[in-house]
Amino acid sequence: MRRKTVGNKVVSVLLAGALAASLAACGGNTANTGADAGNNAADAGTKEDTKSAETETAADTEESSDAAVADSGYEAKDLGGRTIKIGLWWDEYWDSNYQSLDDIEAAGGSWTNEETMQMKLDAVRAVEEKWNCKIEWVNLGWDGIIDSINTSVTAGTPDCDIYLTDLQFGISPVANGYVQKISDYAPADSDILTDGTVFTKQNLLGNDDYLFHESTTIPSGAMYMTYNAAMIDSLGLEAPESLAEKGEWTWDKFAEYAKACTQDTDGDGNMDVYGYGSAWTLTVQGFCASNNATIADSSTEGLSDPKTVEAFNFIDQLYNVDKSARPYQDDWNNDLLAFSSGKVAFAFAQPWILIQEIDNHDFDMRICPAPVGPSGDGSMTPAMITNNYMIPVGVEDATSVYCVFEEMMNWYHDDISYRDDPEWFESGFVDEDQVTLANKLGALANNDLWNSIDSEGAVSKVFYGDVVNGDSTVSQAIESNKQILQDEIDTLKIQ
Predict the structure, then answer these.
(1) Bias regions of kind Basic and acidic residues — which residues (predicted)?
(2) How many CB atoms lie within 10 A of CB 332?
(3) Helix or strand run (H / E) with residue 226
């Protein structure tokens, strides 16, 4: 039986210092670079100089660990010293291999908050003692974790009890029956089946019974329209946020702004600053969401949906008719980071990008709601980037595995103020009003998965065929590729 508890918050010394680093998920889909950066920032960053800070005494640490054991939520089962392995593609430094912060530092690990790192170690100690088990984070590397899933999991003998997956390689094992259902192993009163303080289920094309991720109140994986405030001010244009509040920030108004911002600043006869420019995946995600369009969030492809067609037609207008979008460079970083070098006025970007680039420009970079399309209503923003856990078929006693994992991951004992430290996220925005807007827009994220499942490139063929190569119209490109996407969705049918 799980007992819901709220741990007592001890006096803490918050270690200041903004973390400006991105987590690069190396692999086939560059669009997911930086995935879950906010969730992992506390453990991925550089340790501040904390030697002069007051730390807990040995007695305090022992008392904290004892309290953790007492507060744990499930009736324990003796696991006989079993090691529960969690596979991922980076190093984590809080498991049975590390007894102290000194151990972590000696191994090359770091932290941004000494108190919370100690709390995590205490949670591991509590789980070890209560369940008679060990915990091990296993860094398999990007290619290695994919290989482990494709070989050991499909053979029914998983290398790890739990895997953290990017959706690029997390959906296929679900669709092919290699992942256990959450409802089969999670206790009825578990966090994931009740209030979701620790874990949130991931919806996959209408089914949410297989993958799950850490819950958070901070939308670190959101995507925003961002703009060069100095450029807008210099042109005497009203701030987009103000227009949005009045219901006047529409595609038509955006098209006017994009034209006004497209300029030949050095007088050589060539445009060198454009109204809009971004990586192509962000462009598609952003404008589709602004028109309430999704391409793959159910069992039926949405590429041919009239709302999606409208979005691609508007993208075509910006690039090929108005010519107010920066010509596509087909160079990921060149397109993605054009906003920070002042080459474009508007772009779509995620928090990690804003934070990474904060020292690479000398103007205020602000966010605003995306302009609303003719079929949109402002209620939808692009999908969140999340990594998700799964327990494969072949893992014995998945119920105990889940319970141990939940208790360990609830190292903050339901006091989410420890977990959701907003400092990293907020550092990407210029003032409190912008932070408020970022949280508001982040809460509107949709569940469109096309960028994770479209391995055949149906969506990119539409974008390249029309926008880049100009060898087909939007309608022709969509008609030629919609069945390709539908076939991919069909192969991922989840029971």
Answers:
(1) 45-54
(2) 14
(3) strand 224-228
Helix or strand or coil: residue 344? strand
Q: Which pLDDT does position 333 carry in this prediction?
A: 92
Would you place residue 206 in the very low, low, confident or very high pLDDT band (cuts 50, 70, 90)? confident
| Residue 346 sits in the same domain as residue 239 | yes
Q: How many C-beta neighbours within 10 Å does residue 317 have?
A: 17
Whether the Cβ atoms of residue 375 and residue 264 lie closer than 8 Å to each other = no
The CA distance from 11 to 122, in Å, is 16
E strands, 82-223, in order? 82-88, 133-139, 162-166, 199-201, 212-214
417-428 burial, b at 16+ Cβ within 10 Å, e below that, comes to: ebbbbebbbbbb
Same domain, yes or no: 238 and 314: yes
CATH number of the domain residue 348 falls in: 3.40.190.10
Q: Cβ distance 149 to 163 under 8 Å?
A: yes
**What does the pLDDT read at residue 495?**
62
pLDDT at 59 over 90: no
User: 308 CB contacts (<8 Å, ≥6 apart)?
Assistant: 288, 291, 293, 294, 295, 302, 478
Residues 116 and 251 in one domain: no
Can you name the residues that pair with 273 across neighbouring β-strands?
Answer: 263
The DSSP call for residue 203 is P
**Do 212 and 82 fall within a single domain?**
yes
pLDDT of residue 193 exceeding 90, the answer is: yes
Which structural domain range is residue 333 located in?
A: 224-383+430-491
Count of domains observed in the chain? 2
Q: Are residues 155 and 95 in the same domain?
A: yes
Contacts by 431-434, CB closer than 8 A, 24 or more apart = 434/366, 434/367
**35, 119, 198, 218, 416 from 419: Cα distances, Å:** 18, 11, 10, 10, 5
Residues 6+ apart with CB under 8 A from 102: none
Strands (E), 269-412: 274-276, 344-349, 365-368, 387-390
Give the integer Cα–Cα distance in Å for 303 and 458.
9
Q: What letter represents residue 179's amino acid?
A: V
Contact 225, 348 (CB under 8 A): yes
207 and 249 fall within a common domain: no
User: Looking at the DSSP assignment, which residues form a beta bridge with residue 445?
Assistant: 381
Is 160 a member of any domain? yes
Mean pLDDT of 192-200: 96
What mean pLDDT value characterizes the chain?
86
Residue 45 domain flag? yes
**Residues 237 and 323 grouped into a single domain:** yes
User: Cα(143)–Cα(25) distance, rounded to whole angstroms?
Assistant: 11
Q: What is the pLDDT of residue 64?
A: 45
